Amino acid sequence: MTSRMVSGLLLFLTVSILGSTSNAGASTSGELARISKAIAAQKPVRITSQIEFELIQLEPPGEPIRVEPFSTELDLLEDDRRVYRNGEYEVFMQDGTIMATREGVDDAYVRMRLEGGPAAVAHRLFGSTWHPMLSLIDIDCDDTTVDGAAMSLLCSCEPSVRRDGSDAVVGMTWASSTSELSLDFEPGTSRPTGGKLILKEGDEVPRGTHLMMNWSWAYAPLAKESQEWIRREGRFRVDRLTSLRKLDEGDAAAIGAPAPDLKRPTLSGGVIDIDAFRGRVVVVDFWASWCGPCRKALPQLQTLADELADSPVTVLSVNCFEQKKGAAARNDIRAMVTSLSLTLPVLLDDDGTAARDWGVEGLPCTFIIDQAGRITSIHAGAGPDYLQTIRDDVVSLLSD
């Protein structure tokens, strides 16, 4: 598996890794409340998060695959205002509203309601949540908007506590048969300074591997002049993060732009060219046989194709980023197609050219193309509302 494939995998893994779930015990809830209170106790503060991923290959044994570390930032300001920075994007959160901007795009901003807490908002905007502080500062074990392994452990398992020589708590570990989460705390303040999550199995973890995620957190006080907030003057409002586009960006895989070329051989023989479907609504889904969320998404796309069999709609599945090559890869693909009873066309992107042309980084990645051949929406991952979201987009195009 290449680092690019791991990066793609990690894009949707965090949907399952970070989030909220239910069934917390009273003592566990008390510990989590103390963690949240300690994090926010010294506002205004900037929390810088360093994130590292490691995929440990067990079967067959191999060298761990590491993704280059990267950082995100979270500012906790007065009046419950928050600013989350992820790459080129800044997300401003206050009073049930979020606004987002992108570096290099000075004439537009995104504005929408804040629903489900900061972690759910980050997932909605980016398709992932790299910063667990977004969950830790607003832990709500009764909120099931985003479910995940880490928050499931925090909310449902009693932690084992680590103490130093003075009996102060310096760390906690939550563990189940399939995963383990540990947090280290700053002496005297109880703020988390580091964490590690190990996933041993599950839909999120490729067969024969363990996934390890490491975080380190640094806290810095913010002076008044360092407390940035959005300036909306001179900007127009848009409703999607993908609409915050730079003038020099190409048209590939952009909302409103023509769909890139797609002409590939199929698993059953022959060749499919997307241009043949002009005048129809086309759904293009990129997937891999090792991808757990893809295994959940594909049957839903098959259901959609069956429902709309009498409508001018075509659903295409594009296999890419396989770990194996040649006949071995074909065997894995056929086995998955058979096990899921799929009749969707399967296009083969052996060298990843189509995925790169379409800007695919995470799997599954689903594109909706209108009758004129323009991309109208892009969906990363496959959450609980995946089928309904895709169906709504398609039906909307059919009714235009």
Question: Taking strands numbered 1, 2, ... along the chain, how are they ordered across the largest sheet?
Answer: 7-8-9-10-11-1-2-3-4-5-6-12
Number of helices: 9
CATH topology of the largest domain: outer membrane lipoprotein receptor (LolB), chain A
- Largest pleated sheet: 12 strands, mixed
Which whole number gives the mean pLDDT? Answer: 82
From the N-terminal CA to the C-terminal CA, the straight-line distance is: 43 Å
CATH architectural designation of the largest domain = Clam
| Beta strands, count | 19
What percent strand? 25-35%
Shape: globular
CATH class descriptor name of the largest domain: Mainly Beta
Helix/strand order, N-terminal first = HHEEEEEEHHHEEEEEEEEEHEHEHEEH
Low-confidence stretches: 1-27
Q: Using only CA atoms, what is the Rg?
A: 22 Å
- The number of domains: 2
> What class would the helix/strand composition place it in?
alpha+beta
Helicity level: 25-40%
Any overview of this molecule?
By secondary structure, the chain is an alpha+beta fold. It has two domains: 3-236, outer membrane lipoprotein receptor (LolB), chain A (Clam); 250-399, Glutaredoxin (3-Layer(aba) Sandwich). The chain is 25% helix and 32% strand. It contains nine helices and 19 strands. It has helices at 3-17, 26-39, 117-126, 133-136, 149-156, 292-307, 326-339, 353-357, 386-399; strands spanning 45-57, 65-76, 82-86, 89-94, 97-102, 105-113, 160-163, 169-175, 179-185, 192-199, 209-221, 236-238, 263-265, 271-273, 281-287, 313-320, 346-349, 365-369, 375-380. The strands form three sheets. The chain has a twelve-stranded mixed beta sheet. Strand 1 (45-57) and strand 2 (65-76) form a beta hairpin. The model is unreliable at 1-27 (pLDDT under 50).
